[in-house]
Specification:
- By secondary structure, this protein is an alpha/beta fold.
- It has one domain (about 35-345): TIM Barrel, CATH 3.20.20.70.
- It has twelve helices and ten strands.
- Strands 1, 2, 3, 4, 5, 6, 7, 8, 9 and 10 form a ten-stranded parallel sheet that branches.
- Helix 3 crosses helix 9 (about 270-280), helix 6 packs across helix 7 (about 200-210) and helix 8 runs parallel beside helix 9 (about 270-280).
- The chain is globular.
- Residues about 5-25 and about 370-379 have low confidence and may be disordered.
- Keywords: 2Fe-2S, 4Fe-4S, Biotin biosynthesis, Iron, Iron-sulfur, Metal-binding, S-adenosyl-L-methionine, Transferase.
- Its EC number is 2.8.1.6.
- It is an enzyme of class 2 (transferase).
Length: about 375
């Protein structure tokens, strides 16, 4: 009996995704020349009108019943030399987070298997580093993790600090789907949050990732003390990139004791909803991910975010250092609202970037398979 290998099945899945989930013919092309005033006007529009407009745009570019389920694992905790004022992993602050070494390969693979078994299709790994300088052996271990998890048929994302073009190339060759590197806030407000690296440093890493053919995941954090103008500035920055990010995470600050922002007030829900709605209109083909702080929203608040265009969540046991909604609760919630999980590589932008790799894998497997006769044996 002729058996189809996993890579062949993944390739068929990829082609089916393109055939059934491509952007509708009525969807206009994405814009890359927004002005700040245009985005500000959208952000400031009456909230229900804004949500309705965002929901309409969302349905032009996405299947509104699909939510991408992502699981995040901290593979190297604490001890970071950066001074990000929201982060408990900075070595500059006295926080409950303790520094640890890079995790071994097998526990990471086991976590990825568990995530896949629970319905997650993207596995994300975070390491608390400024960059990869002097971490050759650690980087090689991470490349192995990427290859192994990609071999499970999952999308793979990492966040490892700043990258060089060569490091981005190696991650792409290993099978990395996406790289997370948040801009956090507007260029103007950024120095109030971080001083150990510049906004342009972040943009250079994003460019290296994009040039390597890896999908860019870049968004921000609400509740840092920024204004509406800064939230608009963040969206404007990514909207005018040569290629919109594949995904735009919207994080609500979870204040952590010992960090400079430990006493910040919770960001109002309407601010989260306005940001998601505006991002959906300006970045129509991008995945918008409800990320840190989602557990503070009740079910109806989350449903309104999904209506406005959020179509990805982190689910599982924990974020990097903050709580996460567990799989069973999320799946039950989604069932109540008629939502279901995306397949791996279902998003057209990701599928296009993965296309050559998937086809090459399937062709290699078919070529390596023994010839199988389909004729019936003679009597």
């Amino acid at each position: 009996m002729f058996r189809v290998g996993p890579s062949v099945r993944l390739s068929v899945q990829f082609r089916r995704a393109l055939a059934t989930h491509a952007s509708p013919p009525t969807a206009p092309p994405t814009r890359h020349a927004w002005t700040k005033q245009e985005i500000q006007d959208i952000y400031d529009s009456p909230l229900l009108d804004l949500v309705f407009r965002a929901a309409s745009v969302h349905r032009q570019y996405h299947d509104p019943s699909k939510i991408q389920l992502c699981t995040l694992m901290n593979i190297k905790t604490g001890g970071c030399s950066e001074d990000c004022s929201y982060c408990s992993q900075s070595s500059r602050y006295a926080t409950p987070t303790k520094a640890s070494r890079l995790v071994d390969i097998e526990p990471v693979l086991e976590a990825a298997r568990k995530a896949k078994a629970n319905g997650s299709t993207r596995f994300c790994m975070g390491a608390a580093w400024r960059d990869l300088s002097g971490r050759k052996r650690g980087f090689e271990r991470i490349l192995t993790m990427v290859r192994e998890i990609r071999g499970m048929g999952m999308e793979v994302c990492t966040t490892l600090g700043m990258l060089s073009p060569e490091q981005a190339r190696q991650l792409k060759e290993a099978g990395l789907t996406a790289y997370n590197h948040n801009l956090d806030t507007s260029r103007e407000y950024y120095p109030e949050v971080i001083t150990t690296r510049s906004y342009d440093d972040r943009l250079e890493t994003i460019a290296a990732v994009r040039d390597a053919g890896i999908s860019v995941c870049s968004g921000g954090i609400l509740g840092l003390g920024e204004t509406d103008k800064d939230r608009v500035g963040l969206i404007w920055e990514v909207a005018n990139m040569p290629e919109h990010p594949e995904s735009f995470p919207v994080n609500a600050l979870v204040p952590i004791k010992g960090t400079p922002l430990e006493n910040n007030e919770p960001v109002p829900y309407q601010t989260i909803l306005r940001t998601i709605s505006t991002a959906r209109i300006v970045l129509p083909a991008t995945i918008i991910r409800l990320a840190a702080g989602r557990q503070t929203l009740d079910e109806t608040q989350q449903a309104m975010c999904f209506m406005a265009g959020a179509n990805a969540v982190f689910t599982g046991e924990q974020m990097l250092t903050t709580p996460c909604s567990p799989w069973d609760e999320d799946k039950a919630m989604m069932a109540r609202w008629g939502l279901e999980g995306m397949r791996s590589f279902e998003q057209p932008g990701v599928a296009r970037k993965e296309g050559d790799r998937l086809h090459a894998q399937s062709e290699t497997e078919v070529a390596a398979a023994p010839e199988t006769s389909t004729s019936q044996p003679s009597a």
